[in-house]
Amino acid sequence: MARSDQQTLPVPRHIAIIMDGNGRWARERGLPRTAGHKAGGETFRRIADYCRQIGVKYLTVYAFSTENWKRSQEEISGLMLLLERYLREGLRDMDKNGVSFRFFGDLSRLSPKLRRLCEEARARSSVFHDVQVNFCLNYGGRDEIVRAARAFAADVAAGKRTPESLTEGDFESYLDSAGVPDPELVIRPSGEQRLSNFLPWQSAYSEFVFMDVLWPDFEPKHLDAAIEEYHRRDRRFGGT
Ligand code: IPE
Ligand code: IPE
Ligand code: MG
After folding, report:
1. CA nearest 115: which of 92, 131, 146, 137?
2. Mind listing the pLDDT tens digit for each residue in 54-94?
3. Is 130 considered catalytic here?
4. Tally of domains within the chain
5. Does residue 150 form part of some domain?
6. Torsion from C-alpha of 94, 100, 105, 107, nearest 10 degrees
7. What is the pTM of this model?
8. Of all protein residues, whose CA lies closest to atom 8 belonging to ligand 1?
């Protein structure tokens, strides 16, 4: 798994991944969609571990969107159960993983049990600094911006802020991603070439790599390939 051909290239500090294609992976095998989500969960573990090995500092993953509530009750309950199990196992193995967790999204719609697990994972893992995983759960970029706008408006109403004082940098401090640098690289496996409401504010200047592999089949070599592609890009940020 050595990145032999690119060891001299720096890895992006922050990589964001839309973990997509679990359903198709399951369908191809004649399995229920939940089996695809389970396999996708294993992939997440392997990729998070690989990110730690190669020195990625922030890994943001899209696990459940504000739009995913449109799915069948059976699929949603299956996903929520899997999430609970992964969080429990994550809490158990926390010391050997060295990962710190943060959660982006509106957690208020999740079950109290799942919310407690998220909060426990966040609090207990905050002492680790190898890699920070930002887990997007009931996350939607537009919802995040609206919640930030509400929080800012509440500060204005409370007399703590004035509308004129708001800058882009201040606004960021109201987002779920407060304090996290923007992702240099956003990867979407599964062949779809869209953002699906993932990090619209933060990815304003990210490089996008779309890949024809389903998330459960995603391996460290695919991450290497995406990083290589990232290094071929010429990032100009509006300059020349
Ligand atoms: C991504 O895989 C996981 C979630 C959205 C929860 P999908 O379930 O969207 O898989 P496809 O796109 O149907 O193959
Ligand atoms: C985006 O994938 C959400 C996650 C991967 C969690 P979707 O499968 O929900 O996106 P669409 O429906 O293809 O846009
Ligand atoms: Mg999908």
Report:
1. 137
2. 999 999 999 999 999 999 999 999 999 999 999 999 999 98
3. no
4. 1
5. no
6. 40
7. 0.96
8. 23
